[in-house]
Amino acid sequence: MRLKVLILLGIFLVSFSSVSGQSSTVTDFNIGGCIFDFEGENVGVAPGECSIGDSFGEFYCDEDKDGWITREVGLGCSRGRDDYTEGEPYCCPRDMACEDVGGGEFRCIARTEPCVDYVNSGECAEGGCTWLELLESGKCVDDLTNYGCDYYNTELLCGTDEFNFGQIGIGTELSGTYIECAGRVWSIPVERYECKWYNGSIPGKECRITYSAVEAGYDNSTIQSIFSCSNIYELGECIDGKQDVRWFSDSTAIAGFTSDIIPEECLEVFECNGGEDERFCGEPTIKLSGFSLFAFFISLLVIGMHYFFRNN
Asked: Minimal CA–CA distance to 214: which of 173, 172, 181, 261?
């Protein structure tokens, strides 16, 4: 009986995916967030985050899971805050700035000057940009996600991570997502990302993005599988808003793996075996194998039914 139920459910999953045309291999949806329509396609945004990829900065999802369109008058581009001040992290499409239009309302407007043209922190803030400072030097930038952990050149700065590159920088695009590989469901919680210093690494690349993938929905009677990954990124020249990116990876099995061997397919989907791709200059757009939102919920249902029937 149990086996029949699981088989029928699996057939239903395959049939539904085929009929609906939904992909079971790619997703950039963050569980528990907001869904927006962008040029006829659904865009998932996690709570407290701005949209990424092609819809970069167009939408904001607040902590209550209410959605905002940043170009419209409202609290969207100020990340839902009515006490927003210039120079703080905002949520707008590229080449636009978040402006107070009065009455505690905000909207995205076109910048009058490129951020790079501002030479001090005051002008940078007034222009709706972010002042990126390190030691005695600084520069005005429009998007902190165009930088990564390797911006820090000392172990102290790497560990402090003043600009939060360990959460929003290059290499964090899978944060908060769920992915299926090797017959299991995995996630990389936001808190599993960090900038970490590696002595003896490539000069200028000692501070690397490091994260851990954890098994979701595992049986409490077994050991939860966990593996970590650290990456070094090399970016090409930004041309027409795009640039090539290459990355080199190290991975470590932490728990739950036979002979400490991590399945190759999991290393691939979690960017843990190196590779190359193209990205927007300012926002990662690397699409890796995952699975659809529908498949995720069905996977959880299958897991739940499996343990229900086994314990009854």
From this structure: 181
Looking at the fold, whether 153 and 259 belong to one and the same domain comes out as yes
Residue 123: inside a domain: no
303 and 268 within one domain: no
Give the structural domain span for 226. Answer: 145-291
- Is 155 in the same domain as 287? yes
> Is 229 a domain residue?
yes
149 and 284 belong to one structural domain: yes
Give the Cα separation of 154 and 283 in Å (integer): 25
CA dihedral defined by 177, 246, 89, 156, rounded to 10 degrees?
100
**Whole-angstrom Cα distance, residue 58 to residue 117?**
24
Strand ranges (E), the chain:
34-38, 41-45, 49-50, 59-61, 67-69, 96-102, 105-110, 130-134, 137-141, 178-181, 184-187, 194-197, 207-216, 226-235, 242-255, 275-280
Quick one: 275 and 306 in the same domain?
no
Q: Are 140 and 115 in contact (CB under 8 A)?
A: yes
Do 193 and 284 fall into the same domain? yes
Task: Walk along the chain (312 residues) and give the pLDDT tens digit of each residue.
Answer: 333 333 333 333 333 333 333 222 233 333 467 889 998 888 888 788 888 777 888 999 888 888 889 999 988 888 888 887 765 678 888 778 888 888 888 999 888 888 888 888 888 877 778 888 875 678 888 778 788 999 998 999 999 998 889 988 889 888 777 888 888 888 888 889 999 999 988 888 999 999 999 988 777 767 889 999 999 999 888 777 778 999 999 999 999 888 888 999 999 989 999 988 887 764 333 333 333 344 444 444 444 544 444 455
Q: Does 297 lie in the same domain as 285? A: no
